[in-house]
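Help needed: design a sequence for this.
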């Protein structure tokens, strides 16, 4: 097996999945290109704002493509390249992309409502509040983790005080991205350029930002960058979508898609050997393939967080229902392709079945940099800066969306049911500035308190969120007289995977307690959270399952 074969098979598979399965889903559920979308009907210049197909695709792709599709497949290769490869292909086409598309579809068909409000409409108020609480707590963890990762990526100083120029250069470019994106957003709003002109201007701006950023690196330490990143999160969470996030994601998509394309072309041109065995075993280093493989690959195949983006922000920018398939289904397949490229690079860098030294990102960055330098003839310094910038873009384009979704989840958690007037306290906490500040304060506290103490539960929480979303969407499809059987296997499988992982976590904590190796600050916190996640999940499943299994429930209509 070679890298060319891995990438080639994946390209054909994902193309067929989109052209046949994706289009079949859209046809089965019904797409009306003449129907005015929520973005058009409710255009408020803030959260609801119609945008072009590629602009929304760029937002969706940039927001959902975090560190997962790179780190997950590389770590999962410890079981062999074949299990990881198969799960990315199967999970991506039939689990992840279906979930993302269905969440987007359900939201657009229901006034752009988020998953929490959709659950209230089709399941009930209790289900809504349980889900929103889960979602809000999840966003706190993601904000805390990504803020710390970004701050360390931008850190201008090495461990021994030496200057970290690539990180400082990427920091400058990232800051320019924020300012330039706002100018670009105003340009799009006022001038309304054609797609071609918009593309040309964007390319020129990206090149200019790289040129300036590489000449004027910003050398700040980690604490300073944490403040800056959280400040950016506040701005991104409250400013209109068209002014910052949409143009920023549009510009960032050139980096991310360029990285994916560069990786694909590089693997095809170099055609490296796969130096890892196809299958190592059902247990490696004490870790069982089930459920660890599926939890580890995470958003390389399926991620519950994606549904929050689909229903929270992207659905409010869809200008035509025809755009839902490329945005919801297509963006996820592009992310899966990145996962395959990362897997191919890691397997090529391995030696005699042993993974190369370094973190997954270091292995991936080294491979991409080699492609850019040896195959495309780019200077080594530029390649290093480009990859560092891509890594930061993966974080920045995710954390701003998460901050906005966290703010909206908090508001919707406080919001009374339709037809009920909000109290004075509810109005205060529903204010977008207050809800944003409170969300970021909790996230910042978690960042300083040591989010790594609970980070091991992130994968399980993310996949559990996917299971809860899938069962909620199955209820929506049933209640609107649409076929939903294609969601049944994914939702049951993801629930079993995540509950198994959480039970293993609880069992491990109990064993440590009995052996006298239990640390209250770490193991105790993980044990409590694991039990809380399991309890919360069971409550949501109980409410959703009751509606799903109730054959006598009258349909609410389309």
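Sure. Designed sequence:
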């Amino acid at each position: 097996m070679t890298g060319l074969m891995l990438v080639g098979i994946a390209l054909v598979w994902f193309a067929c999945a989109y052209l046949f399965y994706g289009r079949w889903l859209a046809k089965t559920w019904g797409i009306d290109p003449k129907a005015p979308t929520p973005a058009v009907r409710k255009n408020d210049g803030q959260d609801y704002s119609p945008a072009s197909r590629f602009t929304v695709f760029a937002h969706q792709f940039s927001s959902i493509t975090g560190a997962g599709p790179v780190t997950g497949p590389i770590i999962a290769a410890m079981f062999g390249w074949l299990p990881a490869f198969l799960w990315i292909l199967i999970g991506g086409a039939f689990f992840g992309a279906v979930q993302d598309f269905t969440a987007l579809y359900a939201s657009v068909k229901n006034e752009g409502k988020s998953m929490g409000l959709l659950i209230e409409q089709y399941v009930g108020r209790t289900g809504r509040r349980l889900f929103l609480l889960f979602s809000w707590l999840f966003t706190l963890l993601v904000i805390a983790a990504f803020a710390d990762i970004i701050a360390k990526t931008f850190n201008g100083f090495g461990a021994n005080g030496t200057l970290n120029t690539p990180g400082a250069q990427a920091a400058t470019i990232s800051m320019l991205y924020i300012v330039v994106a706002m100018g670009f957003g105003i340009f799009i709003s006022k001038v309304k350029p054609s797609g071609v002109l918009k593309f040309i201007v964007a390319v020129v701006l990206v090149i200019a930002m790289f040129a300036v950023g590489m000449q004027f690196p910003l050398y700040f330490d980690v604490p300073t960058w944490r403040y800056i990143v959280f400040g950016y999160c506040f701005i991104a969470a409250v400013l209109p979508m068209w002014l910052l996030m949409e143009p920023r994601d549009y510009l960032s998509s050139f980096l991310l898609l360029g990285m994916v394309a560069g990786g694909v072309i590089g693997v095809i041109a170099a055609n490296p050997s796969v130096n890892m065995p196809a299958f190592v075993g059902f247990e490696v280093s004490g870790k069982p393939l089930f459920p660890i493989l599926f939890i580890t690959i995470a958003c390389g195949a399926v991620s519950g967080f994606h549904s929050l983006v689909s229903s929270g922000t992207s659905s409010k920018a869809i200008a035509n229902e025809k755009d839902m398939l490329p945005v919801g289904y297509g963006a996820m397949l592009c992310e899966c392709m990145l996962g395959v490229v990362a897997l191919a690079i890691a397997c090529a860098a391995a030696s005699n079945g042993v993974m190369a030294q370094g973190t997954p990102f270091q292995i991936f960055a080294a491979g991409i940099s080699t492609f850019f330098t040896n195959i495309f003839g780019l200077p080594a310094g530029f390649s290093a800066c480009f990859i560092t910038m891509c890594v930061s873009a993966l974080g920045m384009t995710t954390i701003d969306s998460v901050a906005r979704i966290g703010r909206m989840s908090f508001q919707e958690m406080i919001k009374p049911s339709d037809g009920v007037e909000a109290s004075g306290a509810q109005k205060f906490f529903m204010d977008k500035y207050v809800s944003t500040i409170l969300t970021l304060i909790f996230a910042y506290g978690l960042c300083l308190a040591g989010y790594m103490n609970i980070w091991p539960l992130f994968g399980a929480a993310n996949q559990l969120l996917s299971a809860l979303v899938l069962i909620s969407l199955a209820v929506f499809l049933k209640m609107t007289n649409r076929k939903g059987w294609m969601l049944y296997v994914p939702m049951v499988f993801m629930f079993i995977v995540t509950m198994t992982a959480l039970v293993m976590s609880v069992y491990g904590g109990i064993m440590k307690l009995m052996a006298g190796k239990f640390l209250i600050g770490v193991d105790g916190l993980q044990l409590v959270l694991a039990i809380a996640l399991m309890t919360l999940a069971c409550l949501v499943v109980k409410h959703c399952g009751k509606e799903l299994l109730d054959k006598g429930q009258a349909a609410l209509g389309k």
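Residues 19 and 330 are 10 Å apart (CA to CA).
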